[in-house]
């Protein structure tokens, strides 16, 4: 046993332990948020603090020795870290998916790849790369965008279309004329393109990346319609999307608490009237609190209902399938609306880069450009409710 192992805290094993450690990190994240923006990534020492808090291991199944937190518990952790800094919360949502992916990889390969549980997987799931079939696997090439957390990742997951002898390879069942899969590649085989200069979420390091003619063994590929591990609510096809609303919820809560504390302690210099007695302050904060409460309950309520049904082996009804992505979308848009109204409420007190409201405004504006906050989600949910054709079936948990 080394001196380092004697001083390193034992890995957390429960949701309560992980959440407590996440809460302890909040002041650190808040204090260093400006540094994250300047670096355009999370510093390695902060990533290590997050590893030590257990946030990247929280989705690993019990068979791997993981804590296997529920989706609700995982979202609470993401929300907590986002209260400290949006980029840290965003990278937690991305990196913690490693444990989810492990259940879609055949057992021996998964255990070899994920011998440690605090590993970060980053990457883009949409099939924009090219994977040529070769004996034993594939040769993968491509450029992917928005690789959040790729700068501190251990594995990189990337979607690609499959080719055989230079021609599109159809799916085995013949339903798709051009099959695609997801490919897991060690970070050392990936070249990061340093192009993450953005309005917000600047600390997430969501750079483009390239992979050039890298051999990927068959056993390091996956598809969400094939579960190799024990089926559970975490092996549903859309499980990797569930925790993302924790980011906007955490930011909105941080902004509300920040502004309320200011209003409670300020006095109008011209009239001597406390801000707490100002009608505009009172009604704006009350409206924002109402919107936050409704949005947060929508996210957690739909997730809990889904989790209970999946745990009991019951099907998720169409209405709930549609409600889940809609609740996520609503959390993004509501958080942006709340932060914008609070920014306006504080007037010139909001505009300085040294203050958090400026950062929260930029962070919520940027995160609302994500696919899960776009009208494509509305179309998919609406089409599903009407028996039409959703454009983005996976957000509804549909793979076939």
Please explain how this structure is put together:
By secondary structure, this protein is an alpha+beta fold. It folds into three domains: about 110 residues, Orthogonal Bundle (Butyryl-Coa Dehydrogenase, subunit A, domain 1), CATH 1.10.540; about 100 residues, Butyryl-CoA Dehydrogenase, subunit A, domain 2 (Beta Barrel); about 150 residues, Butyryl-CoA Dehydrogenase, subunit A, domain 3 (Up-down Bundle), CATH 1.20.140. The chain is built from twelve helices and nine strands. Strands 1, 2, 3, 4, 5, 6, 7, 8 and 9 form a nine-stranded mixed β-sheet that branches. Helix 2 runs parallel beside helix 4, helix 5 runs antiparallel to helix 8 and helix 8 runs parallel beside helix 10. About 45% of the residues are buried.
Architecture blueprint of SSEs:
Elements: H1 3-7, H2 15-39, H3 44-53, H4 71-84, H5 86-95, H6 98-102, H7 107-113, E1 121-122, E2 127-134, E3 137-147, E4 155-164, E5 167-168, E6 180-186, E7 191-193, E8 207-217, E9 221-222, H8 246-265, H9 279-311, H10 318-346, H11 356-367, H12 375-386
Parallel strand pairs: 1-4, 2-4
Antiparallel strand pairs: 2-3, 3-8, 4-5, 4-6, 6-9, 7-8
Helix pairs in contact: 2-3, 2-4, 4-5, 4-8, 5-8, 8-9, 8-10, 8-11, 9-10, 10-11, 10-12
Domain Acyl-CoA dehydrogenase C-terminal: 247-374
Organism: Amycolatopsis heterodermiae
Pfam families: Acyl-CoA_dh_2 (PF08028), Acyl-CoA_dh_N (PF02771)
